[in-house]
User: Fold this.
Amino acid sequence: MNQQAQAFRSELTFDGRVLSYLDFGGPGRPLLAVHGHLSEGVSFAALAAELEQEWRVIAPDQRGHGDSDRAAAYGREGYVADLIALLEHLALDGPVVLLGHSLGGINGYHLAAARPDLVAALINVDAPVDVPRTEPSPLAFVRGFPYKAPTREELIAACGPLGAMVGPALRPLAEGAGWRLPFHPQDTVDSEDAVHGDHWAQWLASDCPALLVHGRRSQVLPQEQADAMVSRRPGTSYAAVDADHFVQLRDPNGFAAAVRKFLGGL
Assistant:
């Protein structure tokens, strides 16, 4: 697989905040790719390269992630409003295929439920519909990370085992004032907490074609729930990938093959 794809970073201002996104371009149909927690739009670069002959992949940095500004709240209403604002800004000719991983998948099927006119098809990448509350929060460990540090090296070291993963995504602060994470630790925990609950109504509310891409070793989506999601929602197909929850990172080839097969049938 080609691991490189040329992307152009653009932004819009919505509700007083900057929303940043990557547009991988191309003449094909638009595919909106929405990342999960601790991630950003560039995580879909490999998929964009794989699909570049037929699909124009557009990958936003969701609020509080990457180059997009932090927000006051991280509930579904705000995330969905951001996606609607982006699609209206892009002024595309018709609805998009929406692919979302984890948090992005949940926000994606909430968008399809609220605005079915904007979504032609859904690709849900390991995003559950029943998210039980646990103590501590699965992402509570990031509270111990500093948001900023004087040097890259200090910030990477302060993130412990996660340092190697976030290192390439660190952002320099203005005028040599140090470096920051591509996410705010407390915002991340707040966003994760807001995901907990029952989302069955929104998953079942849309009737566009859908694919559930499921990691066989997922820590987030049990097999029983994945099976129920497919059986209860008409027009939903299923693809299992030999990976944990981070499907597109652990098995990019299997992930791209599953996505390409579904897109080929639309």
The chain has ten helices and 13 strands. The chain has a mean pLDDT of 95.
